[in-house]
Amino acid sequence: MITLHTSQLQSRARALRAGDRVLLSGPVFTARDAAHKRLCALLDEKKHLPFELSGACIYYAGPTPTPPGHVIGSCGPTTSGRMDMYTPRLLAHGLSAMIGKGSRDEAVRRAIAEHGAVYFCAVGGAGALAAQCITACEEIAFHELGCESIKRLELLNFPLIVGVDAAGNSLFAR
Question: What is the pTM assigned to this prediction?
Answer without folding.
Answer: 0.95
